[in-house]
Amino acid sequence: MGPKKGDKKKKKEKEPKPSKTEYLILIAENNAILAQVRTKSEAIEQRYYDTVKRYEQVQEDVADIIKYLQHEIEVNEAEVTIYNGKIKVVQKELTVMEKHYEQIFAKMNAVFEEKNMEFEHQIQQIKAKLFASEEIKQLREEFLKKKAEFEVAIKEMEIRQEREIYDAEKQTIIKQDTMQKSMETHLASLIDDFRQASDFAIGEKINKLIRDNIALGNMLTCMQETIENARKANHKVVTEETQLRYNSDLLDDEYKMTTMKHDSRINMIGTIIKSQEELYERISSCQKLIKGNRRLQRQIAEEECLLREKNEEVKNLTLVLLEHETIYGRVEDIYNKMRKQVLQLEYSIFEVAKKVKEGVDIENLLHLEDEQEGESKEDQEENLIEHKFKVRERAIDDVVMKLSAQLGVLSDLQLSVASSEFHEGSIQESTTTM
Predict the structure, then answer these.
(1) Lowest mean pLDDT among 289-293, 398-402, 425-429
(2) What's the rounded Cα separation, in Å, for the pair 304 and 70?
(3) What stretch or stretches form a coiled coil here (predicted)?
(4) 3 state DSSP class of 373
(5) DSSP structure string for 232-264
(6) CA–CA separation, 301 vs 45, rounded Å?
(7) In this predicted model, what pLDDT tens digit does every residue of 262-281 receive, in sequence order?
(8) Contacts of 417 (CB under 8 A, 6+ apart)
(9) Within a domain: residue 1?
(10) Cα angle vertex 102, ends 100, 105, to 5°?
(11) Is residue 374, in this structure, part of any structural domain at all?
């Protein structure tokens, strides 16, 4: 046992023991370190409270932004439903209008083709009739010429007939006068002869008178026949003249009818042209309606593009909301981690303070026991102080490591908050652009 004690003394001689001043210096340094740790912990607590406030503000802003975006999404969805309803109604109306106008256009085309065929047929007929009317005009002109010639001939015949009748009547009157005179002279001669003749010549004279009377009767009958023949010829001429006049009246009526038909055909051609113009106007109106329909289809396509753009904006807003929710979850996780680390830091600071308090109590006890105990106990106390000092240094090192870790977490939290603020600014810019 003796040599072992000697060895311990040698070791103690080799390792110089720290004095109380050094312990006091170390204690002062440790107190300074503890003061720095306290100031850092206070700064960390202040930053923690600031980050909590900023986190609460960010959370409120996120809630407001979420409400605003949800309201905008609801409004956009309502507008989308309204526009979809309007688009469906307009599409139905367009389909109905297209079918209606297609039917009208088909009917108009059919009517136009039928009318065009009818008009072409009528035009051909009218052209043929116009050619025929030209022939009728030529025939009429020829007929008028013949009529004029015939009227001249009739007038000449009337004059001739009047002259012939006058001559015949004159001759008959002259013959009657001559015959009457001859009869009177003959009767006078007969009377003279009768007076002068004897009784034997009366029979022959009577027979001669009878013969002369018969001859005169035959002459009168011949004259009456000639007069009847002249009257018949005159009547025939008059009937032919009336027939010619009737034929001329018929030709005049036919000419009037042809002129009326020609005028009616011209009016019909005018009505056909007007109906064709109306059909062309209807076709132009249908073309305008088709253009308006195409314009409406373009507007519908533009509205659909706008709706698609709004849907894409809504999708982008939903993506931004999801990103914001993820950032919110990350911030919440960081907040929870930081809270746990702050609690651990408080617990470690509490332990360090407890250990420092124990060290201070031990120092006080050592100062009190220095006067009472001997030199043999001083070595043990010094060893205890060294052990306590090492424990305190380790606790301080742990606290410093935890503080550095907490500072790193706080820097990460600041970066996440800055990124969240950047995202909020981008969301607000997108909402203002909307």
Answers:
(1) 425-429
(2) 23
(3) 109-160, 293-320
(4) coil
(5) HHHHHHHHHHHHHHHHHHHHHHHHHHHHHHHHH
(6) 60
(7) 677 777 777 777 777 777 78
(8) 51, 54, 55, 58, 331
(9) no
(10) 110
(11) yes
Q: What is the mean pLDDT of residues 283-295?
A: 76
Residue 280 to residue 198: CA distance in whole angstroms: 120
Among 382, 353, 392, 403, which residue's Cα sits nearest to residue 27?
392
Structure tokens at 284: 């132009």
Residue pair 349/41 in contact by the 8 Å Cβ criterion:
yes
CA distances from 361 to 65, 205, 426 (A): 57, 226, 59
pLDDT of residue 388: 59
**Of 281, 286, 257, nearest to 273 (Cα)?**
281
Please give the Cα distance from 388 to 228 (Å, whole number).
190
Picking from 50, 67, 29, 145, the residue whose alpha carbon sits closest to that of residue 324 is 67
Task: Provide the 3-class DSSP secondary structure of residue 371.
Answer: coil
Q: Does this model's pTM top 0.90?
A: no
Query: Per residue in 47-95, pLDDT tens?
Result: 777 877 877 787 787 778 778 877 877 887 787 788 778 778 877 887 8
Please state, in angstroms and rounded to a whole number, the distance separating the CA atoms of residues 101 and 89.
18
Q: In angstroms, what is the C-alpha Rg of the chain?
A: 76
Does 9 reside within a domain? no
Q: What is the 3-state secondary structure (H, E, C) of 151-190?
A: HHHHHHHHHHHHHHHHHHHHHHHHHHHHHHHHHHHHHHHH
Residue 290 and residue 97: Cα distance in Å, rounded?
10
pLDDT given for residue 23 in this prediction: 67
Residue with tokens 């959370």: 59
Please state, in angstroms and rounded to a whole number, the distance separating the CA atoms of residues 26 and 109: 114
Q: How far apart are CA 402 and CA 349, in angstroms?
A: 10
Q: Please report whether residue 429 resides in a domain.
A: yes
Distance, CA of 192 to CA of 189 (rounded, Å)? 5
Q: How many CB atoms lie within 10 A of CB 338?
A: 22
CA dist., res. 109 & res. 114, Å (int)? 8
Q: How many domains does the chain have?
A: 1
Answer positive or negative: Cα dihedral of 172, 173, 174, 176: positive
Q: Residue 412: which domain range? A: 18-433
Q: In terms of pLDDT, which residue wins out, 211 or 12?
A: 211
